[in-house]
């Protein structure tokens, strides 16, 4: 199994449980690990045979900017399902960080792994 990574993708989102959070955008950070087989892409040097991290980053950014979930858990599930369906990813690990959420913590996050959607 080969892996394609997207690390530290930052997107401002409408996210949160509390009333004040429904009126602002807050920064979220996404770390994504996706399983694939890079051999055909490496042999042909052709982007169409691998996972395009640029296209996937754009799709994640668009989904997040259009979303309005309360929980980062809900957003994580929606992103994982979109990536698996839209880009035919058989397995992925996704970490969603909300670094400003707890004043005395460097970061809070959820991480999920999905083999099917
Ligand atoms: N496991 C979670 N806990 C909490 C979440 C969340 O999305 N997942 N959200 C909040 C509030 O929105 C918080 O971020 C406000 O600072 C609280 N706990």
TrEMBL record:
UniProt key word Signal: no
Keywords: Folate biosynthesis, Isomerase, Lyase
Gene Ontology CC, one term: cytoplasm
EC number(s) on file: 4.1.2.25
Pathways per UniProt: Cofactor biosynthesis; tetrahydrofolate biosynthesis; 2-amino-4-hydroxy-6-hydroxymethyl-7,8-dihydropteridine diphosphate from 7,8-dihydroneopterin triphosphate: step 3/4
GO molecular function ontology, one term from the record: isomerase activity
Start and end residues of each Dihydroneopterin aldolase/epimerase domain: 4-114
SUPFAM superfamilies in the cross-refs: Tetrahydrobiopterin biosynthesis enzymes-like
Substrates-to-products reaction catalysed: 7,8-dihydroneopterin = 7,8-dihydromonapterin; 7,8-dihydroneopterin = 6-hydroxymethyl-7,8-dihydropterin + glycolaldehyde
InterPro entries: Dihydroneopterin_aldolase, FolB_dom, GTP-CH-I_C/QueF
A biological process from GO: tetrahydrofolate biosynthetic process
PANTHER family per UniProt: DIHYDRONEOPTERIN ALDOLASE 1-RELATED
Protein family according to the UniProt entry: Belongs to the DHNA family.
Function: Catalyzes the conversion of 7,8-dihydroneopterin to 6-hydroxymethyl-7,8-dihydropterin.
Protein name: 7,8-dihydroneopterin aldolase
Species per Swiss-Prot/TrEMBL record: Oceanospirillum multiglobuliferum
Origin organism lineage: Bacteria, Pseudomonadati, Pseudomonadota, Gammaproteobacteria, Oceanospirillales
């Amino acid at each position: 199994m080969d892996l394609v990574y997207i690390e530290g993708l930052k997107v401002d989102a409408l996210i949160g449980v509390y009333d004040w959070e429904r009126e602002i955008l807050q920064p979220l950070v996404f770390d994504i690990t996706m399983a694939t087989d890079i051999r055909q892409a490496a042999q042909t040097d052709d982007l169409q045979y691998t996972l395009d991290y640029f296209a996937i980053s754009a799709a994640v950014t668009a989904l997040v900017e259009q979303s309005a979930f309360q929980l980062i858990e809900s957003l994580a599930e929606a992103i994982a399902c979109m990536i698996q369906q839209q880009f035919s990813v058989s397995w992925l690990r996704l970490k969603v960080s909300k670094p400003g959420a707890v004043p005395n913590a460097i970061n809070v996050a959820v991480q999920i792994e999905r083999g099917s959607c």
